[in-house]
Design a protein that fits this description.
Layout: E1 2-7, H1 11-22, E2 27-31, E3 44-45, H2 47-53, E4 64-65, E5 68-73, E6 76-81, E7 88-89, H3 92-101, E8 106-109, E9 113-118, E10 123-127, E11 132-140, H4 147-152, E12 159-168, H5 172-178, E13 181-186, E14 192-198, E15 203-209, H6 216-227, E16 237-244, E17 256-258, H7 274-289, H8 296-320, H9 322-329, H10 333-343, H11 349-358, H12 360-375, H13 379-389
Parallel strand pairs: 1-2, 1-11, 2-8, 5-13, 11-17
Antiparallel strand pairs: 3-7, 4-7, 5-6, 9-10, 10-11, 12-15, 12-16, 13-14, 14-15
Helix pairs in contact: 1-3, 1-7, 7-8, 10-11, 12-13
Length: 396
């Protein structure tokens, strides 16, 4: 009899297991794959956020530093520089493996869960090889197609977006064009976008959208990437569902708590999931440690769900009239600072949008003044003005 069984060894499951094991609970982690294993993910994250969540160092984790963000909308392309360390890119197989190594728990890998049975005083977990494990509580961290959720009738009305992604080797010339910058491409697909992220020796490319037509993602991805000189075949692509939060859902029972993608916590606008996986894993651990698992759903809604409901409305507005958002927002360095703050969990999506709107007058006056100074031949003074006004972390 374990205190807690965690099904899934990704960021959500590892976070829950880390805080539970660190508090002295006996924890068993069941992971269906052998880590490190490939995981489809752009890998964009804030190391500042990781440092605030965990007491151990992430210096040994291989990271690709990002020094700029590029937004593409048709013929309009805007690049905003970033301060070093504002955003880093990692390979998910390495991140997941590293997090799981920090856990003080029993870990069984290569073991898929087949069935969950929740009884009055304990939970039984049956694996595909016929083994049965028992615990007082269960944390379901087994992804968008969660066996835990399905077995217990949790999240019956889930909403899924779709994404395909690939790790693509490219020529040295193409690699140099994207080294150090994240590229987001809009206007090519309804309710979605494309991305190009640099990794040490290849590019991560992808496309995601809500309710795409059959074959639409592959077709658009191929067309757009060809435009950038990125050639690939379909066999290099990996598809995966993105569970989008659209409304309050049943994500826990008396003894089971869903976290991460199993709880449907991907950001409705960006599809980001790592940050919310870690946050929900920690919230689940805190609910179990306080012996108040019944409070988990409410705490999760206050911490993540409420923001996601607002973000869903913003997302619909953005994709319906995205040109004004992009034309006014992407050149504004304050907007990109909002993205950095969101990844660090220091700002909500609604706060990011409001920051972009409220700083538009400051941005307009600054750019007009800087342009006038350059016209007068005072380029150095123009540069000093912009450096003084714009955020230090994002200084165009």
């Amino acid at each position: 009899m374990y205190d807690v069984i965690v099904v899934g060894g990704g960021p959500a499951g590892s976070s829950a297991a880390y805080f539970l094991g660190g508090a002295g609970k006996s924890v068993l982690v069941l992971e269906k794959e052998h880590l490190p294993r490939y995981k489809t993910c752009g890998g964009g994250l804030s190391v500042r956020f990781l440092r605030e969540q965990f007491p151990f160092s992430f210096e040994s984790l291989a990271k690709t530093s990002v020094n700029a963000v590029t937004y593409v909308n048709g013929s309009q392309e805007t690049t905003i520089p970033l301060a070093p360390g504002a955003i880093d890119l990692v390979m998910r197989d390495e991140l997941d493996d590293y997090l799981l190594q920090q856990v003080h728990a029993s870990v069984i890998q290569g073991t898929a869960v087949r069935r969950i049975c929740e009884l009055q005083d304990h939970v039984e977990v049956e694996t595909a090889d016929g083994q049965v494990y028992t615990s007082q509580f269960l944390v379901g961290a087994d992804g968008a197609n969660s066996v835990v959720a399905h077995s217990l009738g949790l999240r019956p009305r889930r909403t899924l977006a779709a994404a395909i992604e690939g790790e693509i080797p490219v020529s040295a010339d193409v690699m140099r064009r994207f080294t150090g910058r994240m590229v987001f491409i809009f206007g090519e697909i309804h309710y979605g976008y494309l991305w190009i992220f640099p990794k040490p020796d290849h590019l991560t490319i992808g496309i995601g959208a809500l309710h795409p037509k059959p074959g639409e993602l592959q077709k658009i991805l191929k067309r757009v990437m060809t435009r950038y000189g990125i050639d690939f075949d379909v066999s290099r692509l990996h598809g995966h569902p993105i569970p989008i939060f659209t409304h309050r859902e049943r994500v826990s029972s008396a003894r089971t708590l869903l976290v991460g993608d199993a709880a449907g916590l991907a950001d409705p606008l960006s599809g980001e999931g790592i940050r919310f996986a870690i946050k929900s894993g920690r919230l689940a651990a805190e609910a179990i440690l306080s012996n108040k698992p019944e409070q988990y759903t409410q705490n999760l809604y206050r911490s993540i769900g409420l923001n996601h409901r607002r973000t869903m409305l913003i997302s619909m507005s953005f994709y319906f009239i995205q040109n004004p958002y992009l034309i006014l927002g992407t050149p504004n360095p304050f907007s990109t600072q909002g993205v950095v703050d969101m990844l660090a969990d220091h700002r909500s999506t609604a706060g990011f949008i409001l920051r972009g709107l409220f700083t538009l007058p400051v941005f307009a006056v600054t750019e007009l003044t800087a342009c006038f100074l350059r016209y007068l031949g005072k380029a150095d003074l123009s540069k000093q003005l912009r450096a003084m006004i714009y955020p230090k972390d994002v200084n165009a």
